[in-house]
Amino acid sequence: MPELPETETIARDLDRAVAGAVVSGVTVTHADVLRETTPADLAVRLVAARIRRSWRRAKLIVLDLSTAEHLVVQPRFTGALLVDSGALALAERRYTALALHFVDGRTLHYRDIRRLGTVALMGPDRFATYTAGIGPEPLDPTFTADALRTVLSRSGQAVKKVLMNQRQVAGVGNIYATESLWRAGIDPSRSARRVAAAEAQALRRALIDVLSEAIEARGTSFRDYRDAHGERGSFGDHLAAYGRAGLPCPRCQSRLVGTHAVDGRMTVFCPRCQR
DNA sequence: AGGGGAACCCGTACGC
DNA sequence: TGCGTACGGGTTCCCC
After folding, report:
1. Which residue blocks in A166-272 are alpha helix, DSSP H?
2. Does A59 participate in catalysis according to the annotation?
3. Domains of chain A
4. What is the distance in angstroms between the CA of the first residue and the CA of the last residue of chain A?
């Protein structure tokens, strides 16, 4: 389940690997991952295009093309982008849904075991509209405490749910919402608009710190996540709350509680130091 | 507006 | 051993 740090890791690795590569062909083996395009249309629009760069927006990997179009990959749970220079094992290619072949002989696989992930091809206008609907990037300088407070004040929903809503804040999912709320000492179920200014400031700090540290660690490998080299991230060793229900809170030693009460998603928090 | 539920998909875990 | 079924998980969409 790649969130912001995992997606950032993939996008950076991919940028090093395939920026400048020119597409020579496209193979679609599972068309159901495609959005806003078809296999035939994809081939027409991608062949001869050069990949300008690979970057991240929210939990999306965006490949900018020389045609001014954008290939937008949303890996969801099991999606992965793997660069094959000829050494990729057959088992790794088994779940390829889409492959871009490059003039230099390499292949970029979009592999997705459960195929809930998506790949869309968007023109510049469509891409602009699409990204305009996504909330601010937490690591952007414009994501100030005031900006976060404005977002939170607009909703009476649980603060954790608001953090995870991509229209409100970009790139934050269950792991990093859980961790940042633990660090900020805020109960995940508390109404967003009841988060005070000082708390919003602490929450902003916690989000930025947690996400930055996780990028440094190349992400958290829970279940299937692997980076573009097939490697795991190491931030899992630093999680204080996520996945630790029943274990002692690292801050106050109280027993961490796991609940599905917020948005039907597993939430772990410390009932003593998160209020 | 906000809440609930379904759909998307298939490996994994489990029951028999 | 094998077959059948429930489950999870982020996002979107639909309905109340």
Report:
1. 174-184, 197-216
2. yes
3. 4-132 (3.20.190.10), 145-269 (1.10.8.50)
4. 28
Chain centroid, CA A144 distance in Å: 21
Annotated catalytic residue, options A12, A45, A59, A160:
A59
Q: How far apart are the C-alpha atoms of A60 and A24, rounded to whole Å?
A: 24
- pLDDT at residue A266 tops 90: no
Separation of A271 CA and B4 C1' (Å) = 27
Give residue A272's identity as a one-letter amino acid code: R
Closest CA to A108 of A165, A49, A170, A166: A49
The answer to whether A93 touches A85, Cβ cutoff 8 Å, is: no
| Assigned token pair, A68 | 């001014």
**CA distances for A188 relative to A118, A131, A171, A196, angstroms:** 29, 27, 17, 14
Are A124 and A159 spatial neighbours (Cβ–Cβ below 8 Å)? no
Largest CA distance in chain A: 59
Mean pLDDT (chain A, rounded): 91
Phi/psi class of residue A68: alpha, beta or left (left: φ > 0; alpha: ψ in -120 to 50)?
left
Residue nearest to nucleotide B2 (CA to C1'): A157
Nucleotides of B under 7 A from a protein CB: 1-3, 8-11
Alpha helices in chain A (DSSP H): 4-18, 39-46, 90-93, 124-132, 145-153, 159-164, 174-184, 197-216
For residue range A147-203, what is the model confidence (pLDDT) as tens digits?
999 999 988 889 999 999 999 999 999 999 999 999 999 999 999 999 999 999 999
